Amino acid sequence: MPVGLFRVCLLVITAIVNHPLFFPKENGTVPENTEEIIQKMKEREESLRLEQLRLEQEIADQEATQKALEKAAVVVEESKEGRVRWDMWTALSMVIFLLIELWRQDFQEGNWQDVGGEEDDMAVLGKAFKGVALPNKAVLASFYEKRILGTTADMARMREMVEGFADDLLEALRSVCNRDADMEVEDCMGVGSMYENWRVRKPFVCDLIVPFAPPEPYCFRCQTWCSGDSFPPDEQGYGTIKVCRADEDVTGCICDKTKLGEDMLCLLHSQVSSTKPSSDMEDLLCFKNTQYLDADQVMKWFQIAVTKAWNRISHKYEFDLSFSLLDSPGALKIKFKSGKSIAFNLTPVVQYENSDVYFISHFPRSSLAADVPSSTHWFLTFAVYERRFIQLVSKTLPANACHVSCLQILSFLHGKQCSLTGPSGLTNYHLKTVLLHLLQARPSQDWAPEKLEARLQDMLKFLEKCLHEKKLYHFFIGNGKVPAELGFPIIFQRAEPLNLFRPFVLHRDIYRKMVDTFHEMLRNMSALINEYTVHIPLAHTNGIRKEPL
After folding, report:
1. Which of 10, 62, 111, 226 is deepest in the core (most CB within 10 A)?
2. Domains in the chain, ordered, with CATH?
3. pTM above 0.85, yes or no
4. Are 443 and 475 in contact (CB under 8 A)?
């Protein structure tokens, strides 16, 4: 019982103590604290929401930046791939361009071949040639026999007479010269159309070249445009000749280029052994204050020596000898008492090393003669090799081949046209160069005598194409297919091809005149041939009847 009462009392006391009204002040602040807590919780929630938004924005910015970087990387990769593809196409285009250029140069250097029919041929021709009809074989045969063979029968007799007189004249020249100070003259050689049997235009003129060398102890050191040193484009085809002592080093010594001082002495050269030629040689052969051979000085010496030689032997001959042209120093003329005359050119040349290439002092009169850079620049002539090439090829051609006939007919027609309309820049040497290219390009059987008309047409087409492109390459320079039997110097085979029509690019008036003359010759071809053609019997339908030249 007491225990139960105690439990009841304890419960009542506990209830009274925990009643809310028992402590009014302390428990009265509970509602206010709750609102404050709620307000703080709302503020915290708002700050957290703002922070979340900020973080989401940063994440979005990072994702955008990452996407931009990935996109930029893709663009860079595509750009690299595109550049690689572009470089590949550029390299491929350059290779194709180089192949086309090499093919074009081979085509223009004479590797042109006629593989198509008449329609393909006419597609290559220009407008001026399409309306031209060549005479038939019978007319060409009659023209050739009457006009060409009839006028060239006495060529061999004239060559023999001129060569004999030239040998006698040069022997007298050696006797009047001072062997210790003057040039040493060698035997002359015949070159050009008279010695290649295709000269047709009168007056006949023999071209003779005379190699010469300096007296001891001097020698010539030749330098060409393709020997390694840089030459301007307008000096291609030329070279210089330096007069040196035979014991002088080719590369020269430093004592010749540097002042050593009064107390220093070169161990290789003494004061007596000078690298410069003597004053006599310098006044006679070289350009002023240089060691380079002067073509004008050489021609003056040669004219004086020829005059002295003729005065010594003139009593043996019943004709007079004189220089025929003032602007062509080597042009000589023999005048007989009957009034007839014979003209020939005697031109001094310098041999290039041990070959048959020669530096020539002067060429015959030319419309481009003023383009020579200076009197110390000598042009190279390959006339000896040209004659040998024609002789070599002729051995492989059919009997009575038409190659010489083509050149003779074309040379005659061009000469007649120039006599009507005036001279042009096109020369017989250009015509011969065309023939040389075709001789190398075409097989031997294509030059049979019955194919004269076709080969003549080939020469006209080739020449017209060269005139249109202003490109006619020298046959030997840059031609790697020169027969080894000729012994042609390899340095010229490896050189860049020399365009014989390059001067006409700068001289447009001469080029225009040359093209007009060629087109006029095409239009007048039939009339010019018929003018010298006799009546042809109907039975005369075979090819050309030729006699050995």
Report:
1. 226
2. 122-247+280-534 (3.30.460.90)
3. no
4. no
